[in-house]
Amino acid sequence: RHSSSRSIILLSIMKIHANFNLFAATKFDSSQYIASPSYGVNRFLLDRVGEEKARATTIVEYKPNSKFPQHTHIGGEEFLVLKGTFKDQFGAFAAGTYVRNPIDSVHEPWVDDDGCTIFVKLLQMADTGEGITPLHVDLEQAKKTATQHDGTSSTLIAKLYSNAATGECVEMCWLEPNQAFPPQLDDDDVANSGKGGEELFIVQGSLTCQAESYGEWGWLRFPPGSQPVEPRATLQAGPQGAQVYRKTGHLTPKALSMEKIQIDFETEALKQS
User: Fold this and answer.
1) Hey, is 270 helix, strand or coil?
2) 171-203 b/e with 16+ CB inside 10 Å = b?
3) Residue 152 burial by Cβ neighbours in a 10 Å radius (0-12, 13-18, 19+)
4) Which candidate, 239, 244, 232, 241, places its Cα nearest to that of 182?
5) pLDDT digits over 45-79, tens only?
6) How confident is the model over 154-205, as pLDDT tens digits?
7) What is the 3-state secondary structure (H, E, C) of 110-150?
8) Rounded CA gap, 216 and 29, in Å?
9) Which residues are registered as beta bridge partners of 57?
10) What pTM does this model have?
């Protein structure tokens, strides 16, 4: 749905890794969880612009038998189930599931005795006519059809989602121990060359970047521009290998300008198309 009118929500701006033109990285530390307004739901912040309504990338921990109120995804929601089972009216999604809840979709999630932890991205989708039907991908099934990076590399890559209008591409990558992590192949497409920015989340194992090790649930974001460059050129899997979520093409000026929810840094307002 497109409209020339805009609704504006004033907010106090919290900024965490809010400059998308800079390299950013964070190691997961469970002692740094922050309680959310919903009882039993805690958050580890990776990047964020905004307070409770925010363009955000977060690790969210649901304690056993906790829930989150029904809500509408005004700017979309994308997440990976890391531990436990995530439940809503669409089903039960165990660890190893990738989910996209499109713009204007509605759900009321909860967890049972096993609790649940997810890696989630909010208010980062463009309204390109994809409807409101969620996308659910079983990563073990996706791995069975994954392809080698260049036909010979031992890096396995499964494409989970792509959007030709914005240039966004989401993949799951599996790397052997100590293997260099190659950027996406350059096929004259901004997203697939890594020039549109690259964001990595370590589902299992570890990555090393500039001699710094990032373990399970570590997060790295490389700005848009010509790649491979430092520090991206130094990236490789750790001694146990790695399973890595990768998103590319989403940090170009074009892609950011197409996001349904826009944040005005000067007026500190969310603008909804």
Assistant:
1) strand
2) bbbbbeeebebbbbeeeebbbbbbbbbbbbbbb
3) exposed
4) 232
5) 999 987 777 899 999 999 999 888 888 888 999 99
6) 889 999 999 999 999 999 999 999 999 988 755 444 444 568 899 999 999 9
7) ECCCCCEEEEEEECCCECCCCCCCCEEEEHHHHHHCCEECC
8) 10
9) 47, 121
10) 0.90
